[in-house]
Amino acid sequence: AKDVARVSLRLEDAKGETTLDLSGCKLTAIPVAMFMVLKKDLNDIVVVDFSENELKKVSPKLSKFASLKELYMNGNPAISKWTFISSLPFTLQFLSLDRCGLSSLPQEVYGCAQLRRLSVQDNELEELDSEKVRNLSNLEELDVRGNVNLKPSTILALQQRPFSLTL
Questions:
Q1: Which region holds residue 69: left if phi is over 0, alpha if psi is between -120 and 50, else beta?
Q2: Residue from 147, 85, 84, 148 nearest 120 by CA
Q3: pTM above 0.90?
Q4: Rounded mean pLDDT for each run of 10 residues along the chain, 167 residues in total
Q5: Separation of alpha carbons 134 and 132, rounded Å
């Protein structure tokens, strides 16, 4: 009941704002009610934070945030076990998937043409498809710190790309 109240308060706080913070709410799924409560504000929200939850799935309705620029999914370890978001908003410019237990980057990320910054710190990544990363033509920063299993060949290929790489 306490967690439900926390989510309700945060949804109310987001009305008329540009940020929705549902971090640390022990969510196992994105609340469908969120889209009804924020119906009038969906086009105005540019930052959504679902960090430090227990998300087991993500609704494709996330693309209803028509102006979404930043999405934080840090600390959701079950992310590595579920099919990722079928449709990330095309407006997305920053995506953080730190500490999610990822062994590979979800394919949907490579389709985010507007992505400028991508953070995948402290995961279990072994490699990233450097050809698909090249298709992220607006990418300016890629942070792969803490991925101790990242193959040297992947690191070398990423270092040859025209973006800032943080190892």
A1: alpha
A2: 147
A3: yes
A4: 87 96 93 91 95 85 90 88 65 95 88 94 93 92 96 92 92
A5: 5
